[in-house]
């Protein structure tokens, strides 16, 4: 049986509050929320020879809320390492942690349930009345003909085969420590403004993903140089939002496709050339509609048995091709308050698969930029994470050249 390591398919919203939040107040808000009422009635069905889908039932399963006490401001390890299984009745949960002077609310969910947009909107409903809740909750996906899906599948297959051919950097596990942790790299308003100027300088059309990927890669390569004899190219899948601007739904299901980048090791000493190459990769994929082709392919593969599906979406030898993971979180600015509490800080943790055992999340809170690095201690030592943080900060705040 294959060892699972510290792989987790859970996502988390961590909200630090300015005072204690009463359990009764949270329970009452959940009971009154139209979205949570629908969520408690929703089940994932697996009809034969059809794509698994969400269905509303007449049975309501109560939301799980666990309360804990902590003598420090830290999040208890068991909260960060608690995994939600697809077989569980509830694919989401709350952990309400009471510190000496305030509370932290952690909302965790399995990634198959929804994405960051859905979770953000769901939490927003605890403090606000939502119009047309049921209409925005579930959306029926557009149907495509089998011939059209097959054509997109073959185009995607050829693209992935081409971009992942040859040697790629593999991350080997260092030990058997089954623990996930995270660190944050925060920037103030002045620093955020300076970084945005650099994004404009290096990017095309104001798209920041290639720039931040390049910055992370520079720091990552520098750290890996201390571990491996020869550096290889890094393969990175990056989620891309499928909803149109201004969309209010759907809340359930993951409305993301993927972009794929090959970060070239031979460009690691040339910042401008590295970011230029990533910009070209980004716009070439958009131009050829590869993100939509990939989304169509995944929908088609979901018709297959689960074991076949996961084998096909992974690389050779059932291994992940990714050298690291990167995503951009929807800014939780509309979550500045929760019930009668003010949110003083918010952190989003995406799923973390091991290997590669490291994910980078870019987000803003209160208008300020920050990066969240989530890592498995089976794959990365804390001294390596410290090195990555220092190199990222140096590159992001480098004077204009």
UniProtKB/TrEMBL annotation:
Entries under InterPro entries matching the protein: CAT-like_dom_sf, Condensation_dom
Residues covered by the Condensation domain: 4-135
Molecular function, one GO term: catalytic activity
Entry-linked Gene3D superfamilies: Chloramphenicol acetyltransferase-like domain
Domain of life: Bacteria
Coiled coil: none
Cross-referenced Pfam families: Condensation
Protein name: Putative polyketide synthase component
Source organism of the structure: Owenweeksia hongkongensis (strain DSM 17368 / CIP 108786 / JCM 12287 / NRRL B-23963 / UST20020801)
